[in-house]
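Lay summary. Proteins are chains of building blocks that fold into shapes, and those shapes determine what they do. In this project we predict the shape from the chain. Here is one chain we studied, written as its sequence of building blocks.
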Amino acid sequence: MDKLQKNDEVAIMSGKDKGKRGKVERVFRKLGLVMVGGMNVYKRHQKARQMRGGDRVGGIVEFSRPLPRSSVRVVCPKCNKPVRVRLVMELGKARRACIACKEVFV
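And here is the predicted shape, written in a compact code that computers can read:
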């Protein structure tokens, strides 16, 4: 059981997107990184190249980069605030719970 999971709503706590909210698209557990949809977007000027089986079109390409897990917090569905998450045992299973309001997440 991990404290951050796919499709969680999170708030960005630091960096260029500080204060914004988004959904987790992917979690890189071993690297300690999280991909949040529409956040941490960068632009790359890409040169057109001919590749085997097709052509790569040149231009300005936008792509997202992962964020460190420490710079995002889960938004509690009950109190609607960015909170830290605690793991609690419920019926023999580990569940995630909000530290502020003690609400157990699904």
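What the prediction tells us: The mean pLDDT is 91.
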